[in-house]
Amino acid sequence: MKKSIEKITYCFVIIAALFVSFVSFVEPLVMKDINITKVILVLLCYAAVFAGSLTLFRRLSERTLYYLTIAGIFAAVIVQTYIVFHMRLVPEVDLNHIYDYCVDMVETGKISFGESKYFAYNTNNIPLAIVIYYVFRMAAFTGMDYRIAAGLFNVLLILVMYVSAFLILKKVTTIRTTAVYMALLLTNPSFYAYASYYYTDTISAGLVMAAVCFIIYGCYKKKNHWKMIHFLAAGFLIGFATCIRVTSIFIVLAVGVWILLNKYWKKLLTLGIPLVCGLLIFQLAWGGVYRYHVDMDTYDSAITIEHFLMMGSHGNGTYSVKDMRFTRSFPTHEEKVENNKKVYLEHLRENGVLGNLKLAIKKEAIVWGIGTHGYTQYTKNVVEKTTCYDWLVGKKSGLFRTYMQAYNIVLYVLILSGVCCTFRKKKTDKYSWILAIYWCGALVFYIFWEAHPRQSVSILPLLTMLAVPWIERSCIVRD
């Protein structure tokens, strides 16, 4: 039964990777925002460089690869820091409200979010706003520009993500495989496109990767007290990440499902209890911080879960101003829930079985298949339009956007190759199975939730690890 479930999971992921690869390829033909011929040319160039890197990495010593990877990480962070200084973002959408209110709080000495109608409704963004408030306070203390300080904080979390990924792979596989994976991750353009956009995606990704790193290293510790410390730290970080972005909990749920399927009851206790304790420690600490800054009752005013389901059940399943106004029109929580649920079920009935299936496919294509991840929507407004802005967002950004789409095709083809390699193995690969469960969970989630191309950015670091089995096979040094 366990083996059958494992194979079914991999089959589901293989189908998903095939689908996303196809969607990524045809996206330029459908959207007509970039030239398909140029995408193919950039794809071939990237594939040639990547293949050349594989050949080179087979020949270099492990010590050289180690230092080369470290140099690559710092080179990426230097480029992202350059982007932050030369693209001082005037944020759009939700981050706009967060920026304006946090600046006002720092400059007026206010500590409460209670006066804001935006936060009374969008309570899910209060944790991020609190974090940004303290970043701005530090910026004010040092005399640094708020926009630059927030961007540097974002780059710091991206650095944490890179380093954590490096440490994880270095622990569970060879340095050659790690170097190739890091080359793939470091050339992912999404983390450059969003370098100056200090929102939940990149911030939570850094925290999640650090938490996974603690779990992996904790599992390798022989002494119980060191295991306990690592798992507590992981739980604390997962709690923080989930507070910032709720989908951060997916990796913990995937590990839990894997443990239950394998009936590893001892692991459930030795890992689960300290992890939950870490989560509780964070909640206790965060509860005090939250109450200090939020002195309003948001029960009736807050957005509901059913609202996001309702938005995701019609049209393209994306954000709708009309739906937002509809939800806000009801004064109590119970009325919001009741009417959101009513409209949601009406949409499902109107769509019918075929309509709901088409909508689900469309939403998955939006979340995973658009290589640009919708970054221009959030980074189009800056204090000054520099050369850096022109190449990333402005009039000369065509090449960068072409590269983003080409990279997305390569990434999912490599993920497909990695999962196929794992599928053919007779022996269970526990890490690949956990990651396959992780992606299955995310795929199912976005069948129902509001869809946006940006939603997949926070999942990419762990998702890229599904390509590791193929990389391991390709990195074997033959005499």
TrEMBL record:
This protein's GO CC annotations: plasma membrane
Residues spanning the membrane: 7-26, 38-57, 64-85, 118-136, 148-169, 175-195, 202-220, 232-261, 268-286, 406-424, 431-449
Membrane topology label: Multi-pass membrane protein
Alphabetical keyword list: Cell membrane, Glycosyltransferase, Membrane, Transferase, Transmembrane, Transmembrane helix
Subcellular location: Cell membrane
Domain of life: Bacteria
GO terms classed as biological process: lipopolysaccharide biosynthetic process
Keyword Membrane: yes
MF annotations from Gene Ontology: pentosyltransferase activity
Xref: PANTHER family: MANNOSYLTRANSFERASE YKCB-RELATED, MEMBRANE PROTEIN
Protein name (database record): Conserved hypothetical integral membrane protein
Provenance organism: Blautia obeum
Taxonomic placement: Bacteria, Bacillati, Bacillota, Clostridia, Lachnospirales
